[in-house]
Design a protein that fits this description.
There is one protein chain. With 282 residues, the protein is an all-alpha fold. The chain contains 13 helices and no strands. Helix 3 (48-77) packs antiparallel against helix 4 and helix 3 runs parallel beside helix 8 (168-178).
Length: 282
């Protein structure tokens, strides 16, 4: 036994700052007072705090994913593939983190959720501007979705701009034309407000890339990074659907959707269809 009465403690070192009267603190930098006071349950139920924090933290991760994808698009436009690989890899990890969050939410039992579900009114994750932003940036465009965001002029304007811009995949295909691949003009000059559709000329281009990875290494690596994104995004979608099914079964969603049935349809949507189709021909 130690003779020191405080052996199981750690002494505050003399150089550690403790006076922040005139200095910026950790709380100041992260605006923690605002963030940690933003959890305002509408019921007295214990588990509503879990529900709120899971969704608020998810929105922060979605914001970061959008920030990284915006950087990836800029890098690809400039043929600067190295930094693009880095941020796309980060987006994959963000989706993995988001997928894990559903495991925490799934500890919410159906009985406990129903105690406060009515307090949510018609609010729903389907109304998430951060999620819609990612879908548009990845190429799943649907102008009808803008109606949901009319309540916020700032969100509506940002999403409207993204709807009209080329997606990440559109920029990748443009990069392929710069590398000498022949892509149909209908793909390069398409209406970017519409969801992307598979094209044979793009399949043929990716086939050459995969058949000669040494020659087209940057495009080859970029293709695999894109597959990583879709893989992790789809796992997140699936875990979302399964968690909803686990908690509310096939009840209608709070936002008016058919719930689980509606979420299952999203699993059939591919952001980069040719990257999966080309595997059949290798």
């Amino acid at each position: 036994m130690s003779n020191c009465p405080h052996a199981n403690s750690r002494k505050v070192e003399s150089n550690i700052h403790t006076d922040f009267g005139d200095e910026m603190s950790y709380d100041d930098y992260l605006k923690l007072e605002q963030i940690l006071s933003a959890q305002q349950p509408l019921s007295s139920e214990h588990d509503e705090m879990l529900f709120i924090i899971i969704h608020q933290s998810s929105e922060l991760w979605l914001k970061l994913a959008g920030h990284e994808l915006d950087s990836a698009i800029s890098c690809i436009q400039e043929n600067n593939f190295g930094p693009a690989f880095k941020v796309i890899a980060r987006v994959k990890q963000i989706f993995i983190q988001l997928t894990q969050s559903w495991n925490i939410l799934s500890t919410l039992t159906p009985s406990d959720y129903l105690k406060f579900r009515d307090d949510l009114g018609k609010s729903s994750g389907f109304q998430s501007q951060g999620y819609r932003k990612l879908e548009f940036m990845l190429g799943n465009k649907n102008k009808d979705m803008l109606k949901i965001h009319k309540i916020s002029s700032k969100s509506y304007l940002e999403l409207e701009q993204l709807l009209n811009k080329p997606s990440l995949y559109d920029e990748v295909i443009k990069a392929m034309t710069k590398a000498g691949f022949s892509i149909d003009d209908s793909v390069i000059n398409r209406d970017f407000t519409l969801p992307y559709q598979s094209n044979k000329s793009v399949v043929a281009a990716w086939l050459k890339v995969y058949q000669q990875p040494e020659k087209y290494f940057e495009l080859y690596e970029l293709a695999e990074k894109l597959v990583d994104i879709e893989d992790s995004f789809q796992q997140w979608r699936f875990k979302h659907m399964y968690t909803v099914q686990r908690i509310i079964g096939h009840k209608q969603g709070t936002g008016g959707s058919s719930g689980v049935s509606f979420l299952k349809k999203a699993l059939d949507v591919s952001f980069f269809p040719e990257l999966f189709e080309v595997r059949t021909y290798l």
